[in-house]
Specification:
732 residues; Penicillin-binding protein 2a (Domain 2); Beta-lactamase
Length: 732
């Protein structure tokens, strides 16, 4: 029995072993087939790549060996004012690229000539250039100098150097320097628009990059091919360079004189919402946007650490008109009156009694005139800026309607102006507004807004009741002059009737004729407006924001202007200051806009002459014509070319009249004021002028100067001609 069992166990063991061997053989056969098929596939793929695709890969290798491709930066679009004058331009420039690989292949003699020439022409260190070649011998692209001017690039190309080439780019230039800088913004080192129009319309001005790339031809010949860049679009803005200039000159002069912390101004076309000018002080130069040493003083600027410099830069980059909120003070009063008239809670003939103080919910709130105005009508309440009358009007209106009209007029909300970073402001809500809050809000305290909100709302009170969307972009134009985009006046909503608007518009004239805004008066013109004084928080510091908002002409407002000074010296008459700055700029702007004073131009008579057309002429041509016609002139502006005049050509005026000639220059930063040389020795004056950079022509005989062209105090371009006329031949 034992023997049978052993025989069976041996047989079972043998069967199991045979099965294991068969499985192993099957695996080996499978692996063999796998390797055979994989090898065949690999051989097939290699054959395919070699036979079918080999030419392509070979071409890629050859192409890469000839140099890589690179982008051609497109010219950024220009920004021009409403009359086509350049505010921002892009000029072709070049990045200088060193090609160490090509330089080495050119040979030692050519390499030496290239490095010598490049170092001398561009002011670079030759040893540093040699180090670049030594450390990167296979490199084909080493940037050694950025954005050299076009003329320097052309001069460098004339040498026909080996191993160096120019990559086209551009430089962004602001020829008017600080003019409208916060509205325009700047193009930063990261190649992006920052602040203002530059940021808002960055995409429209960017364009599309071109590229240069190697191309392999038959016979393994490699050439350099290119796709041209497409320049960015030009922006036509609503800003008028001349109006902007007049505003900034007046604003900056007074801000410096009276040590204002900030100052701001906006000029708007009330009927459309077009921004004609917008400026802030202090300002900066976008050509060197990260350096305000000229404003603060070099010693002060250099003493600041990086964080302090950053804070100062952020302050001047911001546009006070849209980025800062403030309590408007009494400039809000015409808006409150318009709301009350619209609701019918007061009439245009309404009377009020002002004792100088009013008790509201147990608190005594005073009028600006502590002794009181006595019995006054609505027009007198506006003219004298009576707080007591305003509190009574707000009480009649009620807090619900008061808040409703604030919002209807766009106060405390975005105006939608096409500039980045617009602030909103803070208004009372129904729950927060008690009797005292309503009373103080009636004369512009307890809530805040931006200047752009105020001038937009105020414009609605004088333009027929239409709240317009303010805007700065007029058109986007391509290289061929085609209009890609165009902004049109946009009515946000109707807030009051034309009848109510007419009442406010006409009654606000009394502010300038008989009230707090008298310094804004201009002889021969009907001006309307409103003054404002707002005490800043904390009240105990007794710091104020002074403002004046005005418009002209009263019968059909063509322009409205808000002037604002944020703190001034204690001795300054802040309200009067704002109104005087308005007058100072508007006395130039109104004739420029061909808005003429009433009854200034007399009718024709036997002694009259017809005014010639001086536009486009220079000062020398104009003086000859004026002399022949028996006329004289008052120069306004900067430069020696005339772009406007008053009276306009064809107007009959008496002989001996003085015309206003408006001068302009394409390079105002290069203009210099002429001294008065009349009565001085001609030879001494000639030497002084030539040393200053002017060209001089002496006319007549003698030693003493009797007249000069251009006139004294005119600002003209350096290098211009100055005519000194001796007493025997005075023609001016």
């Amino acid at each position: 029995m034992r023997k049978i069992k052993n025989t069976k166990a041996i047989r079972d063991k043998q069967i199991k072993r045979n099965r294991t061997i068969k499985k192993a053989i099957s695996r080996i056969i499978c692996l063999a087939f796998f390797f055979i098929f994989s090898g065949a596939a690999l051989i097939g793929r290699v054959t395919y790549l070699k036979v079918v695709k080999g030419d392509k890969f070979e071409k890629e290798v050859v192409s890469r060996s000839a140099g890589g491709e690179y982008e051609i930066q497109p010219l950024r679009g220009n920004i021009v004012d409403r009359n086509g004058k350049n505010l921002v331009i892009s000029s072709i420039a070049y990045n200088v690229i060193l090609d160490p690989h090509a330089l080495i292949e050119a040979g030692e003699e050519e390499a030496e000539r290239t490095l010598d020439t490049v170092s001398k022409e561009l002011g670079l260190n030759k040893k540093e250039l040699e180090s670049i070649v030594k450390n990167s011998p296979s490199s084909k692209y080493e940037l050694i100098k950025k954005e050299i001017p076009n003329k320097e690039g052309e001069k460098l190309q004339e040498h026909k150097l080996k191993g160096v080439w120019l990559q086209e780019t551009f430089v962004r230039q602001y020829p008017k320097e600080t003019l409208a800088s916060q509205t325009i913004g700047f193009y930063n080192k990261n190649k992006q628009g920052q602040y203002g129009i530059e940021q808002q319309y960055d995409d429209e001005m960017t364009g599309f990059a071109g590229r240069v790339f190697p191309k392999l031809h038959e016979g393994n010949i490699v050439t350099s091919e290119s796709v041209s860049a497409i320049s960015g679009h030009t922006l036509v803005v609503t800003i008028d360079e001349i109006i902007q200039q007049y505003m900034e000159e007046a604003l900056t002069k007074s801000a410096i004189e009276f040590k204002s912390k900030n100052a701001a101004g906006i000029a708007i076309k009330p009927s459309t919402g077009e921004i004609l000018a917008m400026g802030s002080y202090p300002t900066y130069n976008p050509n060197k946007y990260n350096d305000i040493s000229e404003i603060l003083g070099k010693e002060v600027w250099d003493a600041l650490d990086d964080n302090e410099k950053g804070e100062k830069l952020n302050e001047v980059w911001k546009n006070y008109n849209i980025h800062m909120t403030y309590e408007p003070g009494s400039t809000i009063k015409p808006i409150v009156i318009a709301a009350a008239l619209e609701e019918g809670v007061i009439s245009k003939d309404q009377h009020f009694y002002c004792p100088g103080v009013k008790e509201v919910a147990g608190e005594s709130i005073h009028c600006a005139k502590r002794s009181g105005h006595g019995d006054i009508d609505l027009e007198e309440a506006i003219a004298q800026s009576c707080n007591i009358a305003m509190m009574e009007i707000a009480e009649k209106l009620g807090k619900e309607k008061f808040i409703k009209y604030q919002k209807d007029f766009g106060l405390g909300g975005l105006t939608g102006i096409d500039l980045p970073g617009e602030e909103i402001g803070i208004l009372h809500n129904i729950d927060q507004m008690g009797p005292v809050e309503l009373a103080t809000a009636s004369f512009g305290q307890g809530f805040n807004m931006t200047p752009i909100q105020l001038i937009s709302a105020f414009s609605a009170t004088i333009n027929g009741g239409n709240l317009m969307k303010p805007y700065v972009l007029s058109q986007v134009v391509d290289e061929d002059g085609n209009i890609i985009k165009e902004n049109k006046p946009l009515l946000r909503r109707k807030v009051i009737s034309k009848e109510v608007s007419d009442i406010v518009r006409l009654q606000s004239e009394s502010v300038v004729t008989d009230g707090t805004g008298k310094p804004a008066a201009i002889a021969g013109y009907r001006i309307g407006g409103k003054t404002g004084t707002a005490q800043k928080l904390p009240r105990e510091d007794k710091e104020y924001i002074y403002s004046f908002i005005g418009y002209a002409p009263v019968d059909n407002p063509e322009i409205a202007v808000l002037i604002l000074f944020d703190e001034t010296e204690e001795y300054a008459d802040g309200v009067g200051l704002a109104a005087r700055v308005f007058e100072e700029m508007m006395v130039k702007i109104l004739p420029y806009l061909e808005i003429y004073p009433i009854d200034v131009i007399p009718g024709a008579s036997e002694d009259t002459v017809e005014v010639p057309d001086f536009t486009g002429l220079d000062v020398y041509e104009a003086v000859n014509i004026l002399h022949a016609q028996g006329l004289s002139y008052e120069p306004i502006g900067v430069g020696k070319e005339i772009n406007k005049q008053y009276p306009k050509s064809g107007t009959p005026i008496p002989k001996g009249s003085k015309l206003k000639l408006y001068f302009t220059s394409s390079e105002p930063e290069n203009c210099m004021e002429l001294a008065d040389y009349i009565g001085e020795d001609a030879e001494d004056a000639k030497i002084e002028l030539e040393n200053t950079g002017f060209t001089v022509e002496v006319i007549g005989e003698g030693a003493v100067i009797g007249s000069q062209i251009p006139r004294a105090n005119m600002k003209i371009e350096k290098g211009s001609l100055v005519k000194l006329i001796l007493k025997e031949e005075i023609i001016e």
